[in-house]
């Protein structure tokens, strides 16, 4: 009796494994492929923070002149209810003023500093022309007006219901549901975004990334529907190399062991291929040199997010196999 039970157990287990492997390789037997309006290889992080004043209209314009496929930007809300494009809530790093955006009216916001440190290129600083018109914070609505059909990736930086509502209203006003991706690593924020407007393309939150990994290694991923359309994650191995050159870098709050673990578990070409077959795009960030670009595309990433749009453009031109 015991041997029969054991045989049945292994037969069921074997059947489950074979079925999981089959549907992992051919997910469209179960899931209808998501049909997105765009596919992005070249993504300009904050408009290209290494080549222009980050998150400004001049940065977005120049990135598009270089041929970028997508603009990545961040949003906050001012005291008088304007949705402003900025990565930081507190303006000390970017302007030298120890002020929070939520405590300022839009017209009272200071200019960006003439020289800005790069969060993802430790020790490097962008030095621009210093012209006031290039250092002004821009409104999300103005970006939508100027670039009506350009794919835009929006990081909702804070858990603020009014901010989410206003961004959703702007997306709807300018008919941008199919050309916009939004969300945040914070699962609460991302859930609120989806509840507010499920027609907009959605990022995986950090919690959902962990869930994705658990599904993959349990064999359940092929059977589970996913509402998200974009997996956007960092490439851990590059953070290890940057830590060697700048061990005190502020954007490296985690230990090397954690980075190696994430690199081992998540950076899988088979996973990215599975997601691609389901119509889910994968973007790796923030990559700034040829070795990093090459590794991302070799892993099967759909696109690369960079601070240096001209570098990525040159790389893609010199390596057409990745275009």
Automatic annotation (TrEMBL):
Belongs to the glycerophosphoryl diester phosphodiesterase family. Gene3D superfamilies: Phosphatidylinositol (PI) phosphodiesterase (3.20.20.190). One of its GO terms (molecular function) is phosphatidylcholine lysophospholipase activity. This is Glycerophosphodiester phosphodiesterase domain-containing protein 1. It holds the Pfam family GDPD. Residues 40-316 form the GP-PDE domain. The chain crosses the membrane at residues 6-24, 209-226. Its main location: membrane. Keywords: Hydrolase, Lipid metabolism, Membrane, Transmembrane, Transmembrane helix. The keyword Transferase does not apply. The gene is Gdpd1.
């Amino acid at each position: 009796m015991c041997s029969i039970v054991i045989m049945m157990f292994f037969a069921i287990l074997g059947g489950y494994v074979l079925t999981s492997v089959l549907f992992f390789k051919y997910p469209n037997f179960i899931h209808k492929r998501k049909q997105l309006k765009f596919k992005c290889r070249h993504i300009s992080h904050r408009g290209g923070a290494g080549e222009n004043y980050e998150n400004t209209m001049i940065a977005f314009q120049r990135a598009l002149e270089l041929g970028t496929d997508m603009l990545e930007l961040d949003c906050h809300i001012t005291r008088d209810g304007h949705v402003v494009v900025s990565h930081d809530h507190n303006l000390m790093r970017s302007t030298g003023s120890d002020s929070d955006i939520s405590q300022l009216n839009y017209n009272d916001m200071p200019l960006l500093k003439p020289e800005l440190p790069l969060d993802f290129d430790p020790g490097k600083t962008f030095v621009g022309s210093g012209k006031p018109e290039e250092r002004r914070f821009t409104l999300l609505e103005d970006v939508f007006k100027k670039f009506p059909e350009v794919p835009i990736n929006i990081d909702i930086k804070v858990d603020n219901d009014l901010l989410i509502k206003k961004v959703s209203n702007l997306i709807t006003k300018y008919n941008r549901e199919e050309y916009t991706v939004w969300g945040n690593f914070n699962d609460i924020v991302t859930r609120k975004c989806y509840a507010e407007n499920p027609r907009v393309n959605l990022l995986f939150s950090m919690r959902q990334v962990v869930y994705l990994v658990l599904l993959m290694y349990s064999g359940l991923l092929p059977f589970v529907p996913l509402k998200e359309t974009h997996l956007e994650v960092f490439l851990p191995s590059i953070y290890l190399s940057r830590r060697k050159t700048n061990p005190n870098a502020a954007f490296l709050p985690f230990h090397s062991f954690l980075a190696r673990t994430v690199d081992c578990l998540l950076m899988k070409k088979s996973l990215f291929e599975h997601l691609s077959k389901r119509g889910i795009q994968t973007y790796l960030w923030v990559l700034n040199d040829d070795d990093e670009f090459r590794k991302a595309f070799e892993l099967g990433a759909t696109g690369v997010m960079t601070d240096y749009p001209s570098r990525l453009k040159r790389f893609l031109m010199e390596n057409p196999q990745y275009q």
